[in-house]
Amino acid sequence: AKDAGRNSIRFFNPRMQATLDARMKLESALREGLDRGEFRLYYQPQVDRDGRLIGAEALLRWFPDGQLVGPDQFIPLAEETGLIVPLGQWVLDAACAQLSRWQQDEATRHLQLAVNVSARQFHEADFVERVRHSVEASGIDACGLKLELTESVVLEHVEEVVNRMHVLHELGVRFSLDDFGTGYSSLAYLRRLPLDQLKIDQGFVRGIVDHPEDAAIVDAIVAMSGSLGLATIAEGVETDEQWHVLLGSACQAGQGYLFGRPLPLEQWDALLLRESES
Ligand code: C2E
Ligand code: CA
Ligand code: CA
Ligand code: CA
After folding, report:
1. Taking every annotated instance into account, which residue ranges of this chain make up the domain EAL (predicted)?
2. Could you tell me if the CB of 178 is within 6 A of ligand 1?
3. For residue 148, which of 192, 111, 185, 118 has the smallest C-alpha distance?
């Protein structure tokens, strides 16, 4: 369904040479979409080693005239134009509202919700205040909120990044380093960040069964995170074989089609219900 949606909206296709005109159309469509409430969060399950649900990653979807458009089609332009700031704020508020519901129910109180934060958003002058406000306005225990940052976020303005992360960490907010292994972070550098989790990039997971080098990298990442006191989660887990290798590496958690696709709220709630009845 997602791919059909992508192909039917021609000017969102990133392979086309984006003309200024198309970009301006997309930009104003995004802006209006935000005003009109065309964005939704989808929830993808995250599980522990025993396959038990421990939380979800919130993934943004856009429905201009009812068609599903995935984030790869609009996040890059939203970042370039700065629209990612109000859009990211919407995501944060929606995620906190969702967490608040989970935290009010005994059965779902333990679930963590991971939210993607782009570089531009994180580096906004008032980012920390905005997060604090979202947390306070929703009344959540911030421990349920996990911000996923990529290396592109944390490699610039290091002092400021470390400061901000510490302030948020004191509020209770958790941090996961997304797409880990694809960038250039050094061990020495990672030690300085108040991270809770490394998220092993799906590129390694994809090759883990057939390519010993990928398995070796994953092994090394898990061992390294352990010695830094960090948890690990693998993303893009699609097969039992991959999960088996990851469990052999002592990876603590998984996310991927094997456990569940990103789900719209109604389907996610149905999953929670099944989970609580089992
Ligand atoms: P990401 O943060 O690395 O998210 C993981 C992507 O992998 C998601 O794509 C997810 O649907 C997909 N995925 C999950 N499990 C599997 C699997 O088993 N196999 C495969 N092949 N793919 C899997 P999605 O939802 O299209 O999101 C793409 C990217 O858009 C995200 O990559 C993230 O960088 C960005 N994004 C999504 N939502 C937000 C948001 O709210 N804010 C920001 N700033 N970026 C977002
Ligand atoms: Ca992510
Ligand atoms: Ca990722
Ligand atoms: Ca990615």
Report:
1. 23-276
2. yes
3. 118
Q: What is the dihedral of CA 72, 76, 77, 81, to 10 degrees?
A: 150
- Phi, psi of 230, deg, nearest 5: -105, 150
How far is the C-alpha of 60 from the C-alpha of 82, rounded, in Å? 17
Radius of gyration, alpha carbons of the chain: 19
Q: Is 103 left (phi over 0), alpha (psi -120 to 50) or beta?
A: alpha
What is the rounded distance in angstroms from the CA atom of residue 217 to the CA atom of residue 225? 12
pTM: 0.93
Mark the ranges of the chain whose per-residue pLDDT is less than 50: 1-2
Q: Which atom of ligand 1 is nearest to the CA of 257?
A: 18
Q: What is the ipTM of this complex?
A: 0.98
- For 193-206, letters b (16+ CB in 10 Å) and e give bebbbbbbbbebbb
Give the span between the Cα atoms of 150 and 155, in whole angstroms.
9
